[in-house]
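Structure (tokenized):
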């Protein structure tokens, strides 16, 4: 997902940094074409390649630019030592968490799904492993009570873009870039997330609501309704003891659906059923006419 790269690249161009070349995602990545078009619209040279950026041809091509430093944004291919030596100072990786917490492909999702109250962004030197190099700069912030992966994604990307400009300005002024090793130990990780995520109402209403926010809008967090996946993008909840079966519709009004969970009830506010459009609760009720006793399971 090159959105971070698009935001950062645009910011660097606007701040008049000299961009030697741009390296897009692999050609097989569905985001590659759009990112290449964006870079070329800025009149930048783009080094396209097949699947592996660590080829001798690519390494020689980049090294010939004699660039001072490289920047990596949301790139999921391990880079070789030879690749990382193609610029004078190496490469800065932009990571949307406070490393060493949440190393991996998708910090945004796991930060929200795990109920973190704070997070942040990190710039660090890239090494041959993912997200383990020396830290250059970090900035923390609070996670909003209703934060979604979409809002956290946007906030982190623009914060990283500004931090990157500050660090590179300092580098241009001093010729130096201070860094420190990451602390050792075991920390929470952020593995890749599958696009389809089945909601488990047995996990409880708090965990269910967090999962739905962690998925919105990039992933499909769903329950089944009338044998079709019902994607839930937003929900309220209530903690309350009961003896009802999990997933049953316990109340329907013109404005609201109440669905039982392990330790209470959820009240979906935005639902997409099958391939239909996305509905708020009142419109979903008008179109599908859900009945008490039916299941979201």
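Design, position by position:
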């Amino acid at each position: 997902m090159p959105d971070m790269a698009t935001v950062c690249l645009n910011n660097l161009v606007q701040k008049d940094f000299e961009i030697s070349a741009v390296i897009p995602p692999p050609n097989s990545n569905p985001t590659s074409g759009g990112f290449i078009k964006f870079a070329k619209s800025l009149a930048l040279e783009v080094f396209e390649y097949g699947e592996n950026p660590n080829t001798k041809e690519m390494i020689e091509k980049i090294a010939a630019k004699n660039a001072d430093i490289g920047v990596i944004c949301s790139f999921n291919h391990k880079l070789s030592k030879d690749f990382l030596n193609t610029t004078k100072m190496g490469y800065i990786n932009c990571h949307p968490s406070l490393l060493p917490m949440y190393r991996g492909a998708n910090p945004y999702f796991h930060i929200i799904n795990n109920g973190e109250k704070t997070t942040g962004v990190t710039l660090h030197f890239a090494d041959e492993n993912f997200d383990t190099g020396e830290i250059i700069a970090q900035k923390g912030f609070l996670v909003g009570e209703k934060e979604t992966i979409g809002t956290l994604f946007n906030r982190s990307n623009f914060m990283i873009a500004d931090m990157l400009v500050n660090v590179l300005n300092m580098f241009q002024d001093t010729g130096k870039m201070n860094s420190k090793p990451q602390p050792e130990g075991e920390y929470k990780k952020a593995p890749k997330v599958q696009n389809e995520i089945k909601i488990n109402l047995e996990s409880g209403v708090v965990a269910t609501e967090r999962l739905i926010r962690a998925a919105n809008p990039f992933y499909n967090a769903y329950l089944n309704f009338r044998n079709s996946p019902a994607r839930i993008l937003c929900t309220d909840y209530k903690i309350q003891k009961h003896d009802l079966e999990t997933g049953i519709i316990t109340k329907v009004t013109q404005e609201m659906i109440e669905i039982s969970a392990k330790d209470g009830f959820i009240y979906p506010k935005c639902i997409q059923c099958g391939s239909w459009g996305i509905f708020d609760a009142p419109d979903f009720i008008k179109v599908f006419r859900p009945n008490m006793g039916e299941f979201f399971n």
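Reviewer-requested clarification: DSSP finds eight helices and eleven strands in the chain. Residues 76 and 105 are 7 Å apart (CA to CA).
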